[in-house]
Design brief:
This protein is of the alpha/beta class and 173 residues long. Helix content is 20%, strand content 29%. It has three helices and ten strands. It has an eight-stranded mixed β-sheet with strand order 3-2-1-10-5-6-7-9, sandwiched between helices. A two-stranded parallel sheet has the order 4-8. A hairpin with a 4-residue loop joins strand 1 and strand 2. It is globular. The two termini are 28 Å apart.
């Protein structure tokens, strides 16, 4: 536990130095569960599902990684570097909100929960591994989450509460 706290505090300090912004610790009473089988995301607060969303997830060749992760950065209008498209441009496939996930040491640069410029993709397995949301919905979620919010990504037929509980999260039926 001391190691985890050290990593969180060190990362927060580094982000403050590098990005010049104060980094908030995640509220321990909130988390996300994403089910890639059903392409759904649940936002939990105080052990209860507040809201669920339909999402798009990875294709068979580029699946969304499963496991427990943390949101490590929050970016408004992130540029789409490989397409040389500026943040905020309607052609940007990342939408206007980015919640970067630390998947296998990528520190939020590769995998994220983000908006998109193709609303018809929601509900499908079409991404390169990211979780896509409707822009209006990612804005709502973005405003409620802190950096270091935990995210559980699973592929299951179980209910959100069953998945949450079996992975150590507090969830009320």
């Amino acid at each position: 536990m001391k190691k985890v706290m050290f990593v969180i505090i060190t990362t927060a300090l580094l982000c403050t130095i590098i990005f010049g912004e104060k980094v908030e610790a995640a509220a321990s009473n909130q988390f996300l569960v994403i089910n890639t089988l059903k392409n759904q995301l649940a936002y939990y607060k105080d052990g209860r599902i507040v809201k669920t969303f339909k999402v798009a997830t990875g294709k068979t060749l580029t699946p969304t990684p499963t496991g427990k992760f943390f949101i490590v950065n929050k970016i408004k209008n992130r540029p789409y570097y490989s397409g040389n498209i500026k943040g905020g441009d309607p052609r940007n496939p990342l939408g206007d909100r980015w919640l970067g996930l630390n998947v296998n040491g990528t520190w939020g640069t590769t995998y994220a929960i983000h908006g998109n410029n193709n609303e018809k993709s929601i509900g499908l397995h079409v991404s390169a591994g990211c979780i896509r949301m409707h822009n209006k919905e990612i804005r709502w979620l973005y405003d409620r989450l802190s950096v270091y919010t935990q995210v559980l990504i699973v592929k299951s037929n179980a209910s959100f509460n069953t998945m949450a509980k079996s992975n150590g999260f507090y969830a009320i039926n």
